[in-house]
Every structure is written in C-alpha cells, then in structure tokens.
Batch of 2 targets.
Target 1
Amino acid sequence: MKPVLVFDWNGTLLDDAHALLQTTNAILDRFGRAPIDMKTLQEHCDVPLARLYHSLGMSEDEIATIDRDGSAMFHDAYERLASKADLREGARRVLELARQEGALSIIVSNHIVEPLRFQLKRLGINDYIDDVLAFETRTSQYKSMSKGERLRLHMQKNNLQPASTFIIGDMPVETEIGRNLGLISISITGGFVSESRLRAADPDYTINNHHELLPILQRHGFFGMHKL
C-alpha cells in the first residue's frame, strides 16, 4: 500500500507567511489602523480571513468592504507578493521522493485553483502534484464545499485509505480534518499559526520543516531508507 500525502498549500508548502503579513498590513493601513507583527498574525490568523480581521478589531462594515468583489483588495495585493515566495525548507525533496516511491501527493487548500496552479508551475513542482482540491473562483471562496468535505469526497471516489493517508498543514483546521477522517495529522510550525495554537489542536505529530516529515513516514513503514 502506497501512502497518500495531503498537503495544505499556503504556509505549508509555500513559504508565504510574510506575504500574508504584508497584505494584512496593507489592508489595515487602508482603514487607518496600525500594522501588526508576525507574532500577532500567528496568534490571530484564522479562516475564512474575515475571522482574522474581526479578531484584529475591524468593524463589520470594514470587513464587508474587504470581501467585496471577491476579496479583490486582498487577492490583488497578496498574489503579487506570493509570486516571489519560495517553497518551504525540504518541501521539494519530499515531493520528489513521493514521486519516486509512487506515493500520491495532493493539495487541499482554501486558495483558488488557477493562481495555485500558476504557482506550482512557477516553482517547477506541478508534475509532482496529483490533484489540487481548492476553490474554483474568488467568488466561490469559502462559499462552497469545505476543505474537509472536498477531501472526504475525493478519498471516497478514489478509494484512498485513511490509515495510510497523512495530512500536513500549518493551521488547526488540518488537524481537525485529520481527526474527522481518521488520517494521520502532522502540523508544521513557521506558517500562519503559532506553535502553541498548533499543539493545542493535538495533532499526531508536529514538525518544524519538511525534512522532519521523512522519519515520520518511515516510522509508518514508507519511503524505505531515503535520507533528506
């Protein structure tokens, strides 16, 4: 049985936490509010991002303005910054090994399919990813199927076994999805959420970079004697 690696995208494979911070500060500045630092972002970040803005003290009218036109205010700023972001440490090697071993690599994301696919091609990893499960358009973002439900249906359709499926993410939601679907959950620090919040969600494992993913996979009988 081959493993299935289910990766979140933003903050997990893509090293874009600073892009999110800069975008958030640009939005805060537009409404005359003080900027925040990375620690504050990681303590408050949540999805949908309206929860983040609300947690930072923004009014319902301000949040509605941000959400207008498919969150153009956010996406137009964020995509420019994310186009300069690299992969997180060890991510490329893990994806290469997964392809060598015949494992499936799936992305499940709250992002939009088209810009996500653009980033995969820009970073030269499109061929390593078997499926991208994300929102179809800006206007459907957070308004249609959730990440967990999207993944559940995909696993059911493709007869993927929970016992050999690993979900890797930088937010508590991935741990929750793993618990609900019976997957092995792995939280990665250094993304959008603080380590204390990640650990409070009680994932099966916590790692600091993708190099630390390989020993976990080997502990479960996968990826042989490979080294990162």
Target 2
Amino acid sequence: MKKIILYFMLLALTSLTACDPVESRETLDGAITAEQLNISATPIVVNGKNSNKVILKNNSPVLSWWNYGTGTTQMQTDTVLLVLKGENSITFTGQNGDGSQISKTITVNVEELSFPVPPEWGYLCGSGSKTWVWDETAPSVWGNGGYKNDKAPAWWTLKIGDINGQAANEGTGASMDFSISGAAFTKLKSDGSSEKGSFALLMTSVTLDDNGNVWAKGKLKTKGTTVLCGKSPNEGGAPVYEYDILILNDNKMILSYPEPGVGSGGTAWFWVFRAK
C-alpha cells in the first residue's frame, strides 16, 4: 500500500514539473524591442495618389504614443491629418509592461493635400517655416485687458521698448520661428540665445463672447518654451503655454490668455505680433 501511495505522489510531482513553463524573462516582463513592433502608417489613397489623411495602427502589446509632426495621439488606431506634401516623419513611442519605452519612425509620402487643411497652418508657417516679431506698428504689443471683451492690450499696455523690463532679451530684436516640419517652434532672443520647443494649432477650439460671436477662432499651444514674453504677471510670472488665437492671417497674429477662473471682462493678457 505504501508503494502505491509513493507511486502516485511521484506521478503528481512529475505532472506538475511537466506543466511548469520554461521561464521567459521577456514574456514575464511583457517587453518587446523596437524591431518587434507591429505598427503601420498608411495614407488613404484618393484618385490614385497618397492623400494627407493617414491611418495609424498599433498591433503590438504596448501603449501607444504617436507624434505625426503637427499633432499627437495615444490611440491604438487613429486617422490623422497631415498638412505638408512630400515626406512626413511619424514617430511611434510604445511603453512596455515593465515601463520601458521603445521608438520607431515611419516615413509617409503625401502626394496630394486631398483633405482640407486649416489655412492657419499656412498663415503661421508659410510654405514650411515663418518668422514672427513684435508688431511695432500697433499702439502696444503686450499687456492686459478684458477677457472676451477686448482684442488687444487695453488696460496696462506696453510698447516694444518696455518688453525687456518684463522678459530680458525678448523685446526689440527678438523673434519666433514656426515650422510645419515636426511642428517645431524656436524662440530667438536678442542676445543670440534660443529656446526650442514644439507647437500645436487647435482650430476647433473656438471661444464665443457673451453675444455668441467668435472672439477666439482657435488655440495655439506651445511645449518646451513660450512665445516672446510668455508670462502671466499676476501669477508670479508663471509661463504660459496655451493661447487663444484672436487674429491670425498672413501678416498679423494676436494671442490672448485669460487668468484662471475669470469670466467675461476678467483679466486676460494679450500679445501682438507681425510676420517678418
């Protein structure tokens, strides 16, 4: 009887050992390499040509973060709009289960802008990149005024010669470059130094005034640095990275930023620029 019991104990132990999988550190961690990514960026074909709408797909077991130059998305599958003909770089960054990140860049060739592109992209960046400076022809270039009421500095107003007192080397002689490629943004100071970042145009973020009229036709967001003198004095000089677009055309750009929580008529800050 003891031999029978011992036999079944050995049989059970053998079965458990046989079912125990061989340890795979990669499987346990849920980590893959950039070479193992299964991703794609496929332009929608219109009339036989690659259009500027691109379908992004991530079929890999990682979290998604796509940077398609003029915007980002964290969707596993998404359709995005490109604004530039020719070769566009789309960078995918994935996050593994163990927290590690992997990246891969795909090049997409856009043959036709088959889908409408907001004209503000052309206003801001020209045919590829464009330089903006303070508008010295305006009565003032920076200051505050009423949120949803004013369209330019109206209360405390400063001319270009006063800007350096608020932000050193960001007045006369300073400029900003906006480039469609990679949505790159560079602030060039009058002392020769520069700060680099990126930007996004959100032309669906419209702000109406109390009468239902368009006060701001979209938003400009920057990352990495601000526009010239991009600060909020009543918040201790805190940097501002999101601006309402009041005016943006080939020659003029007026931006605004409301202080947190203000309603119509509350304090907002205004920037007045022109194309160089």
